[in-house]
Amino acid sequence: MVRRIAVKRLTESDLTIFTAYYRRPDVHSKQKAVNLNAEVFVDEFFPQLQQTRRQKFQVALYVYGPGNHGELEEPRLVVKQQKNWRLDGKLIDNPEDARNRFDQLRPDDVVVMEFIGGPDGPEEVRAVFLARANALDGALAEECSAFLGTGRSMASCAEADLRAMVSRALVSDDHPVHQILLEADLEDAALGGAGGQAGLRRRGSRRNRSPEALQQAKIAAEETGHRGELLVDRYLDAAVAAGEIRASTWVAATDATAPYDFEIETSQGVRRIDVKSTAYDFASPLHVSFAELECMARSAEPYDIYRVYAMTETKGELRIAAAVGAFAGSILSALSALPQGVTVDSVSVRPGLLRFGPPVALDVDGRHTGAGYGAHEHSVADYRPSSP
User: Fold this and answer.
1) CATH number, position 105
2) Does residue 246 form part of some domain?
């Protein structure tokens, strides 16, 4: 499943998709569509559209904003028009319960769009319209405008960059832009995380909380976990080839019940590795099973956590927390106070509680940039927490 985010500066033509703007006597464009710049929508997001003869397809469009206005579902066509594509279709009316909803939008306001679908085109689009004149949108609209700069009308935006803009703009927790930032909560909730479940209840629509959405998120999380292990396998194979370690075994590839994913042999002896992967940023919670905690704490061999994050289909970032046995022991000690007959299946851990090494950029071909394996300090010293 392809998921991409774009920021776009709105033009007069784009705004004529709204009835309120289309009917203004001083507006001359009658386009009734939002332009999707080909250098972003095709070249970056859906390059297979360059090869297809497909000229149009239907998407489910979910419209949010301006301000704290919630979801409107508006089925639409994505249509190829000469060089560019357009989010086309009938006009979008102000709803009955908010008769002036879209009237405040003006040229140079901003829309944040999320495209979700297969490699040959989106099936769903979420669009959050931000009006500079709206007190709830103004700061974020300015952040998005600065992100675009003076030379771009539409640009791809990493989720981490959007989160940073939302944070700097002090956007309220109930602002609809969070609808585009719910995927990390969905992943966490699908893995049993209480934080993700709370985030969905606080900000998500019923559609985000449906059994189907959670099931899809669980499948995506499992795929992310496998891809993360694959990236680490290639990284460790490269370390063997470079003579940095002597051998590497992908244990989880043949034993799904093992409480670790890899076992490596170094000049200092054997080490065990558990890979924790996420499509989102480094700070997303780590999910550690009780069996993994016991192995971390009681294994005679040092046990390391390999955090793979910001993953795409072929790439990811890696940071390593070495020798986490003492940390796991402290958790088990706290859990020992539970009443008899009560057990914990897993825990969620904030990555900032562990001391992670420098980042390494990985790709599926085994290439990596940043610190090589030998630069990571693998010691069996007592656990020392880093700053949160």
Assistant:
1) 2.40.330.10
2) yes
Residue 194 in any domain: the answer is no
81-82-84 Cα angle (round to 5):
65
Question: Each residue of 228-267: b (16+ CB within 10 Å) or e?
Answer: bbbbbbbbbebbeeeebbeebebbbeeeeebbbbbbbebe
Classified as helix, coil or strand, 24 is coil
Residue 257 corresponds to which tokens in the numbers above? Answer: 């019940």
Higher pLDDT, residue 72 or 54: 72
Q: How far apart are the first and last CA of the chain?
A: 33
| E strand or H helix at 93 | none
Q: CB-based contacts of 342: which residues, under 8 Å, 6+ apart?
A: none
Domain that holds residue 132: 2-181
Does 54 map to a domain? yes
Of 327, 323, 329, 320, the residue nearest 379 (C-alpha): 323
Q: Over 50: is that where the pLDDT of 380 sits?
A: no
- Are residue 157 and residue 14 in the same domain, yes or no? yes
Answer yes or no: do 8 and 89 share one domain. yes
Instruction: Judge contact between 271 and 301, C-beta under 8 A.
Output: yes
Beta strand pairing status for 2-9 and 110-118?
antiparallel
Task: Region of 170 please: left (phi>0), alpha (psi -120 to 50) or beta.
Answer: left
| Residues 276, 167 share a domain | no
User: Is 19 in contact with 92 (CB distance < 8 Å)?
Assistant: yes
- Is residue 123 in a domain? yes
Please tell me the total count of domains within the chain.
2
Structure token pair of residue 309: 């994050």
Residue environment code for 146-183, b if the CB has 16+ CB neighbours within 10 A, otherwise e: ebbeeeeebbbbebeebbebbeebebeeebbbbbbbbb
Residue range 228-279, pLDDT digits in tens: 999 999 999 999 998 989 999 999 999 999 999 999 999 889 999 999 999 8
Q: At 351, list the tokens.
A: 């990555």
- In whole angstroms, what separates CA 305 from the centre of its chain? 21
Each residue's pLDDT tens digit, 307-356: 999 888 788 999 999 999 999 999 999 999 999 899 888 999 999 999 99
Residue 170 and residue 105 in one domain: yes
